Structure formats: structure tokens, C-alpha cells
Amino acid sequence: MSCSLTAAHTHPLDQLSASELLAARSVLINASIISPTDAVVSILEVDEPEKSVVKAWKPGQELPSRKALAVTRKDGIMRKTIVNLDKEMVESSEVHEGAGGTALSELEVEVVRVRRILAEYQPLQESLAKRGLSYSETALLPLSPGWFDVSEDEGKRLIFMQFNYANGTENHFMRPISGLFAVIDMDEERVSKYVDDYDEDIPLPRREGTDYRLECQEPPLLKPLNIISTEQPNGPSFTVDRHIVQWGSYWRFHLRMDGRAGTVISMAEVFDDGVWRSVLYKGYLSEMFVPYQDPSDLWYFRTYMDEGEYGLGANASPLEPLNDCPRNAHFLDVVLPSASGLPVVKSNRICIFERSAGDVTWRHTETLAPDGKIITEARSKVTLVVRMVTTLGNYDYLLDWEFQTDGLIRVGVGLTGIIQPKATKRRSLNDEGELSDSLHGAFVSENLVGVIHDHFMTYHLDLDIDGPKNSFVESKLKRRYIPPGAGIRRKSYWDTESRVAQTEADARIQLSLTQPSEFFVINPEKTTRLGNPVGYRLVPSATAATLLDPDDPPQIRADFIKKQIWATQYHKEEKYAGGEFVYQSHGDDTLSVWSNKNRNIANEDIVLWYTIGFHHVPVQEDFPIMSTISGSFELKPANFFENNPVLKMQPSSAADFSAYFPEIDTKIEQKST
């Protein structure tokens, strides 16, 4: 990915370059849609051409008209604007008048104003002094307010503020100041609500043991493991040409970083018998919903829609070589707009690497041949990984797209970082007496409770299996019974019963272990030589379902998580499962609302949506920082190829390595002996 100010785009889906961001910003300023100083640019990204135009375009042809999509807020007015970059003019601009607002600019503009407002707010200074604390060492945690159908909050730009104490530790999250809370009205730039529910029996949690930095750990440290490194003396097997990634004769795709969605994989094609075949037109994480399960006054609103309220790409973290990504990784810089629309070059926000972890692509040992000959064939697994990490306050999310040589795509998420705790008067469960209040979590340290919460990540998967006209198929696994008197000793077996979803209502799936199914996206107009429609299978892994009441406002806003799988008819504007304007939204522009249109999805251009879910009950091992919790799902070829596409893959051998690592031959000989 180029970061040059003068770089020209070479593909219709390329993200805006720095020069294009500057041009779009200039047009917006000249049209008085934003100002150079105090307006907020929530989104400034490429406005993609129509899908049909993108798919018809070929390298070397004239590029489609270049446009930018801007979502802005100025003087309390939110606008969605299309800027024609070729003509340097506003093509259209609409005022957003419904519910919901733009994302919170966490590090710029709005939060700077919040800090100024609170620094001048005398009641806060008094509250801190009463506790023996100082404002200069207080960490401000700006929180999205959610929506709870409260009339006096409607139409206001609100930021809820939690206060932590950073004295003596970099991990201020583990030192929440109990009972202190503020609501900031950003339009009026004032504190609209302030709570100081001081309880001297609830201490500030201790700082000892909270700092996660290596320099703060008391000896002895753990002995390091011996170094493991993937060496590629001939270089990687993939190439990166601006936004196009090609991995040998296996995969090629377009890659970009989006301020809201993070990494976006587009135009993913797999190589098959001399031809590149389309699999995925566009895939990305479309929304994250993180509801906490403490209904008390200072916690009930913590029901974050992290992507729409903060932005995954906007909060992408620089990746640490050797720790976030292996030694053989290739790192990419990205250009994203600041909250004022200015281009910012962000280094090392994406890494790409080939992974060889000792796994096996396929193998077999034959021991039953008539001549008694033993045959063993095995092929090592190498995959291509595209990774980013986004840091949203206390949590860090690792987001992976992993491509395999056999045509499989694995999408992985990792949850790490720091849990969001609350202070309590009890030191631990060992204290005498009954709890005076419900913990809504578990003790992770003295006077500190890790609050129970969920994580739901909904992916947008615009599969185009050999073309845009696809169908969604559910294949149920059904128990069958053998009739009495049939002369068969078995009583039961299972078989499959498939159905093609005709409408969007047919494609709403709640996963169940007791009613198992398999799920496919097929191209009904293209078949293999055996007559099977070509397709890809969605393979869910361990996930979680929502436990909230359907009428609970957070659930209404995030109604798209009530099912794990949806399929909808493609519509360019239906991009984010939680809707376009998420901040304080009412849930009236979400995936579930679109699904209620009940459009035809049989042999149509369709989008598959899948939600990975986690229930998180914190434990002591989550303190002071948590190890990664992982989840994934797969998109797996299903009658897409005529046979195993890696049948002709050559096995690894000592000869491949001996020229670079002479000791390999000796070690292999010793193992064989």
C-alpha cells in the first residue's frame, strides 16, 4: 500500500490516497459542510462504484469515476455527502434526520473538548479532593451512551465519562474511581449530569500488581523459550502490488484498510486449472456489540457498538514485529483521515505472512495393500494470513483473514487486552458476611470485580461463487428410522435434507447442537462434471447466542445478533449490520430490519452474514491483563473443485532446505534411524 501524497489509484476499490483526502476535504470546506477547525469527519472513504462496474473493469482499462463518501457533523447537523473527485465538486449531500449519530472521535476534536470541559468543572475537582486524588493523574474514559428510549436524551450528542486513576501504574483500568460519573452534552459543551455517589467503604483498588509492562514485573521472570523463526531464504511466495495481494498460484485479492470496518478483503479469487475463479466479492467485520451485564445506574448503558461508535480502522494499533506478527511478516502502512479530514500515515497497521506451524494439509498411510507394502504420503500446511489489531479503550482485538492452498478461508478473531472492572467494598469472597450487592461478575483482585459481558462480531460476506447469482442452502441432518421387520439390525441412522432459501425470512438461522445443519452458498447455474452445483460451505465454530430480552433496548439496537446466520439480497447501502449512524441509534436501520423486507434470495446476488459470539465471565487469570480468547469460522469449498485442488502439491523434503540449512539432512537421518 502506497502512502505517497501523489500516489494515483490503480483499482476502483483502492482506498483514498493522501492527496485524494486533501482534495475531498477542500471540497467539503468550500461547500461549508465542514470547517477547518471544529467540524467532525466521522467517515471519509472511497465511494465504491456499482458492483457491476467494478466486476466488469479490467486492469489497463480506464478507471471508473473516482468519488469520496463523507459522513460529517457540524453545528449538531450530520450529513452524508458524495464528493466527485474528478470534478472536485459536491455531487450530493443529505442531512441525516433520523435517530443515530456519528462515531466518537476518541483522540481528537470531541475528546479534547471533553477534557477542557472537565478540567474547568469545579464539582469534579472537589470530588477528587475528597478522595485524596488529583485531576492531573485521573484518566478519562469516554463511553458511548447507548439508547434507552429516554425522551430528554433524544437528539443530543452525549458522552458518558468514567474516571480511573493512573497514579503508580500504566494500567489505570484496574483503578476505577467508584461512584464518580459525568455526562457531557457536546452540543452545549457542558456537564449535563454529574454523579458523586461517594462511599468511603469502597476504596480505590490497589495499584500493586496492576502494571503489565515487563519493566514493572518483580523477578524472577519466566525463562524465555528457545527462538522459533520461519525463514524464507527465497523470499515470500506472495506479492503485494499496491492493494493487490497474490499468493502464488492459489489466491489473489484486493486489500484495503477502512476507517470504520478495518481490513476489507475484496475480489478474492482462487486459481483452478489455469483460471481465476471468484469466491468473495467483499468481506469485512460489519459491527461489534459488547453489552455488559450490570444493570446498576453507572453500568447499565455499557452496551457498546464498537465499530459504529468508535471505528476499527481508525483505532488500528501499530503491529509489533516478532510479537504481533512473525519475523517473516510483510508490514503495510495505511493512510486514513483524521477527525478533521486530514490524511494521516499510520505505520505497520496490517501485516501479511505465510504461516507454517507444523500442521498437515493432507496425509494417509496405507497398511492394507494386498502386497503388504506400506505407503505414506503427507503434505505440510502453509497458509497466508492478513492481520490487523484494533484497540478500543481497554480491549485489543486481533482480526485475521487466513487463506489456505485447498481453497479454504478461515476468519479468526482474538480478544485480549484488559477487562473493564468495577470497585467494590469487599476485598474478596473470603470476607465474612453476605454480599450487600450483586457483583454481576467475579473477583479478579482485592476490591475489584470483573463484570460479566458478551462480545458479538457480525461479518459481512458478499460471496460471489463463480459469479453474482447465488443461492443459500440449508442442509439439515435428520435422524431416520428403519421400519420394524426390515431385517436390519440397526434401528436408526441420519441423512441430509436440503432446502434452498427462497426469501430472506428462510435464511434466518439460530444454530443448535440438537438440530444440526450445514450451510452453503451455491451457484445453481454452474455444476461440476458430476452435476453438483458449485459452492462454498459456511462452517461455524463455537459461538454464543444473546441472553437479553427481545424488548430490552440494547437488544433492539443490536437485533442482528438474535440469529447467527442471515442471508439478504445485495444492496450497496446495506453495509453495516448495526446501521450507518450507530451512535445513540434506535435499531431501525439494521440487518434484521433489512431482512424483514423478505426479498427473494434464490439465484440472486446475495450477502451472507455470520456472527461469532463470546460470553465472558472474568477469572483471576484475566488480571491485570488477559490472555487471548480466540474464535473463528470457515468458508470451505463444497463441490467447487472437481477433486482435491492440492492433490498435485509436492511434499517438503530435506533437499528443499539443505542448501540453506545443512544441518537439516543430519537431523532427518537421525529421526529416520
Automatic annotation (TrEMBL):
This protein's source sits in the domain of life called Eukaryota
Task: Identify the catalytic residues.
Answer: D306, Y395
Residues found modified as 2',4',5'-topaquinone: Y395
Name of the protein in its database record: Amine oxidase
- What does the record give as EC number? 1.4.3.-
Q: Which SUPFAM superfamilies match?
A: Amine oxidase catalytic domain, Amine oxidase N-terminal region
Principal EC category:
oxidoreductase
A Pfam short name: Cu_amine_oxidN2
For the Copper amine oxidase N3-terminal domain, which residue ranges apply?
A: 110-196
Q: What InterPro entries does the record point to?
A: Cu_Am_Ox_Cu-bd, Cu_Am_ox_TPQ-bd, Cu_amine_oxidase, Cu_amine_oxidase_C, Cu_amine_oxidase_C_sf, Cu_amine_oxidase_N-reg, Cu_amine_oxidase_N2, Cu_amine_oxidase_N3
Give the signal peptide as a residue range, or say none if absent.
none
Domain (Copper amine oxidase catalytic) ranges: 230-647
Keyword set for this entry? Copper, Metal-binding, Oxidoreductase, TPQ
